[in-house]
Design a protein that fits this description.
Strand content: under 5%
Number of strands: 0
Largest sheet: none
Radius of gyration: 18 Å
Distance between the termini: 34 Å
Structural class: mainly alpha
Helix content: over 70%
Low-confidence stretches: 1-7
Length: about 140
């Protein structure tokens, strides 16, 4: 009986791998859609090229902040804690961005989007490292 329990805990975490693959797909698709929607965002808010650059700067600043905070949180509480809250915040930030029509609201929405993306990215990559350790072979490139 003990041998069976040991074999069960030693099995690679396939469900974790599928979950992480899904997280990485969602992050990639969301960034691709965000980039492709830039002309529509610019037109909807009647932004100049410089103003659109400020919105993108807000997203980048938010992401850098999210990555910095995410690293500390993952170290302190474990990476799996960064997979739930930031996922919810990431989804809400996409809804928020869809409602923004002015430069200040777009810049703020983009910063929230970037921050939640950064937090989720740290959680996903840190969890992927743990998953790879459990598999005892390189798997991150397949995620």
């Amino acid at each position: 009986m003990t041998t069976h329990a040991a074999a069960v805990t030693a099995a690679p975490p396939r469900a974790d791998r599928r979950l992480l693959t899904g997280v990485f797909v969602i992050l990639g698709v969301a960034m691709a859609v965000w980039g492709a929607r830039m002309p529509a965002v610019q037109a909807a808010a009647d932004l100049s090229a410089g103003e659109l650059a400020l919105v993108l700067l807000g997203a980048a600043a938010g992401m850098v902040g999210g990555l910095q905070v995410g690293g500390r949180l993952a170290d302190r509480h474990g990476p799996s804690q960064l997979l739930v809250g930031p996922t919810i915040a990431f989804g809400c930030s996409l809804v928020l961005l869809g409602q923004c029509r002015t430069l200040p609201t777009l810049a703020l929405g983009a910063a929230v989007f970037g921050c939640s993306h950064g937090l989720l990215d740290v959680g996903a990559n840190s969890s992927a490292v743990n998953c790879e350790r459990a598999y005892r072979r390189p798997i991150m490139s397949s995620l």
